[in-house]
Structures
1.
Amino acid sequence: MSTTLNTVTLKRFSYDWIRRFIELLPSDRRNFRYQHISPAFNFLLKKYIDHKFGKNIYIKYKNHLDNATIRSLSNVVITDQITFLNCGPGVIDRFFTSPKIKTCRLLNLNLLSCRITPDELMKILNFTYVKYEEIFLEGTITERVSVSSIIPEIRPEPKYKFCLENLIDDQDEYI
């Protein structure tokens, strides 16, 4: 069993290393002279050949996330921080559920002056596949939500900063 575990670990490490190496390649990856290093490298190079890697992305003043915006982000892999500024309800949900938008190793999620639904708030708190260092939420929830209903969803890993209207303190012990 340990041989199988070691093999899987080695494959996973190799895959992650190659993918991160591809992120650092110049934008013209088609003429990369080391493209035949290994079958895995060649596979990943073809998979990410048309992708652009960006550290930060800012989505501003959107009341809805239209198809044109999603198409413009379809080949971008966001690797550090996402900031939503003055966005309406549904934008965050559509952003994270779109199969065309890719995120990788996100550190920070910022919502500034945004209106979000209670469902979007719960989805943000339940993003278990992303290891955020900090989540900053400032804005308004479209309906009243009690603090006691979100406490079970909060994980210990990231730092949370909440400044949300309609987030109700229903028990003094949480504040």
Note: The CA atoms of residues 7 and 19 lie 18 Å apart.
2.
Amino acid sequence: MGAAYLVSFKSMEVYRLNTVSKAEPVKQDNLLTWFRWLKRWVRQIFTKGRTKQKPLKVIERTESHDELTSLVFVERDAPGAVGTWYMFRRDNPRVNLLITLDNLAAIRLALRHHRPQGMEMSNFERSLVHQDPIIRTHRISIQWIVKLRSSRTVFNLIGTWDADLQGDSFDPNSKAITIFRLIGREALNLPPIPGVQWRARMAHFPWTDSMESYARAVLGEYHKSHIKKVLTNPMPVSK
């Protein structure tokens, strides 16, 4: 189900990027930067004492057929954020499946806007510049967020991918949101398997196959999403 890593919630600016140490592999730098962005948002909604934080805006809430599992579509205030869903079971609300959908072009624009004049692009920003003729429009990340009784939070990555979820659509994000609404509802209503826990079922759900299938249904049967796995073997985020 991927490597688990602990997160401590210290203050961090959204655009604080690693531009000094160039010895680290680019992919590893991208990984740490990407999860720092997600960590900042998770710190706001999944930790205790949220009274001073902006209330979480719920856009849509869907219950499974057996009413044991909930899928919540929420607003996420982050550069490039398009769609954010989390899923949990009522018998174990400390374990949440987080699905995030981001627009890569919007992230590039935000990074460019907040980069100090004269400073070179960070590895993370450089990685978002297309280096091949294949256009990928969105980044999808699926992971577990487990809230421990000690107040710490554990992230457990299932996978992160880039894909073309816009196709020929004029609107950059509407089709991508539709695709992941359909994927989320399919995962929400998976029939139980005797002896297999819900978390194991979600970790082995065919996320990329479903993404390709629904993309063709929404964007046309000849659409190719060019799904590319981005991050593997994550290192612990700074404690």
Note: Residues 4-47+54-229 form one domain.
